[in-house]
Amino acid sequence: MSHTLVAFHAHPDDEALLTSGTMAKAAAAGHRVVLVTATDGGLGLAAGEFRDDGGLGARRLGELRRSADALGVARVVHLGYADSGMDGDPPTNSLVAASVEDAADRLAAVLDEEHAEVLTSYDPQGGYGHRDHVRVHHVAARAAELAGTRRVLQATVPRDLLVNALKATSKVYKFPDAFDMEVYERAFSARAQITHRIDVHRHIAAKRASMAAHASQATADDGDRTLAAFLRIPRPLYDLVFGREWFVDPQHDGPVARDIFAGLP
């Protein structure tokens, strides 16, 4: 039986890093996959050629559509908010400036339209702590309540595995000076919290294409970005690092699941 998955993310490119393999796997199995981004990512870091004209948000939404095509996504939705940025006063039309209820109403409308059975969001700390990611966690939880969505999966990474992967990557690529390993040592989720571990090795080409679609986010005026480092990892090391994706379902009881749709009618 086919189901509908709605993958909810804060910015274009977040889907590539956290859920793209799961999305590609679901689409390949005949399930309907809908990608929703809360913001346009217009305050993201990128080289001047991508942002100096004020068009970074529009460019990133275009990159999002190319990523979606690579994954077999059936529909892409932008909730209409601007990027809140990492710090400082957020724009008045940003996700953080809006109320949780307003954003949840917009997302719930999509969940209702799609009769979604599974919704992905983020863990309570928003992964590495970006305020838009934290807000996505709260918006998704409320939207699921409003729409009666059966299952909400918090996309995450076992933090010990992440730190080990980043250290391995540092042996073949020098991260920018601004990269702070300590941030990731406190980020995401403990391994014991993981409830769903999804093997996406067979869809690794789609995942890599999804990452590559976000060309602006692999650039900077003074060097590369983390995404560029990931794309330079040679295969099969890339496959080893990115061949699984992880989720936390606070309602899950039992052993770690291998299928996000398991147990649904």
TrEMBL record:
Protein name as annotated: LmbE family N-acetylglucosaminyl deacetylase
GO BP terms, alphabetized: glycoside metabolic process
Keywords: Zinc
Single GO term (MF): hydrolase activity, acting on carbon-nitrogen (but not peptide) bonds, in linear amides
Origin superkingdom: Bacteria
